[in-house]
Amino acid sequence: MSKAAEGGMARGKAAKLKRKQFEKALEKLQVELVRLQEWVKYKGLKIIVIFEGRDAAGKGGVIKRITERVSPRVFRVAALPAPSEREKSQVYMQRYIQHFPAAGEVVIFDRSWYNRALVERVMGFCSEKQVEAFFRLCPEMEKAFVDAGIQLIKYWFEVSQKEQTRRFQARIQDGRKIWKLSPMDLESHRRWYDYSRARDQMLAATDTDFAPWYIVPADDKRRARLNCIAHLLSLIPYKTAPHEKQKLPKRQKPKGYVEPARRLKVIPQKY
After folding, report:
1. Average pLDDT for consecutive 10-residue bins of the chain (271 residues)?
2. DSSP per-residue letters across the chain
3. Which pTM value belongs to this model?
4. Domains of the chain in sequence order
């Protein structure tokens, strides 16, 4: 993919959304996510959503907005750390499969088995032979997942060189964000074109009719979040699940209960 094409993927032509516009649109989408959640439970759906992309492309921000108003028992996030020595000895994908959804669940992978085609490959944590095997087997495995009743949705977040650099600099300078910056992130900034080549081959080898890749232009964080959530909702047919109308019951009578005098420590009221 050319540099111009990468820029086109990452940049949108529209002006950036103001915060109030963003929050109003997000609220509506989050209401729909709750409706989707209830439908997923009612119909016993099994859904996997994969978020991949360059470092600092905004995957975590989208995942946060998707999950902040829904139940963590339905929308589960799997963000796996580096594999242990035991996991390294397992069949590849094994440690991911144990996090797959049961009926009535949506599992969001914040990075996934595609680590093999990206960071592991670029950083030399696996051999080219292992990468080639991954490209052969991955579509077959994903077809098996889909045939087993899982809806598999894959997003790639693309950010431009200029915007990635700006976000990394912000992480360096902001004490609230410094935890987001690892030595691997810094190395990924240096190896931009190594990642570009790995990404191009990965997308070409694993974009299928049953599990296609969807590209999210992510230079504008707010638009990326809204567009991705709206697109996710469009991919899963859902309706309002049947439910009984809720009515708040009256509290029971105290029947002589009196609050006891307690000698407990109360936190200081500083604000």
Report:
1. 53 76 98 98 98 95 98 97 93 96 98 97 96 98 98 98 94 86 87 97 98 97 98 97 92 94 89 95
2. --HHHHHHHH--SSPPPPHHHHHHHHHHHHHHHHHHHHHHHHHT-EEEEEEEESTTSSHHHHHHHHHTTS-TTTEEEE---SPPHHHHTSPTTHHHHTT---TTEEEEEES-GGGGGTHHHHTTSS-HHHHHHHHHHHHHHHHHHHHTTEEEEEEEEE--HHHHHHHHHHHHH-TTTGGG--HHHHHHHHTHHHHHHHHHHHHHHH--SSS-EEEEE-SSHHHHHHHHHHHHHHHS---PPP-PPP-PPPPPP-TT--PPP----------
3. 0.90
4. 3-235 (3.40.50.300)
User: How is residue 194 written in tokens?
Assistant: 């190594």
Write down the residue that tokens 């680590």 correspond to: 115
pLDDT tens by residue, 91-123 = 999 999 999 999 999 999 999 999 999 999 999
CA distance to 31, 55, 64, 226, 260, per residue, from 26 (Å): 9, 24, 12, 6, 45
Task: Assess contact for 29 and 230: CB atoms under 8 A.
Answer: yes
Kindly report the CA angle at 26 between 15 and 229, in degrees rounded to 5? 90
Q: What is the dihedral of CA 241, 244, 246, 252, to 10 degrees?
A: -140
Question: Tokens 């809204």 belong to which residue?
Answer: 226
Phi-psi region of 92 (alpha: psi -120 to 50; beta: other; left: phi over 0): beta
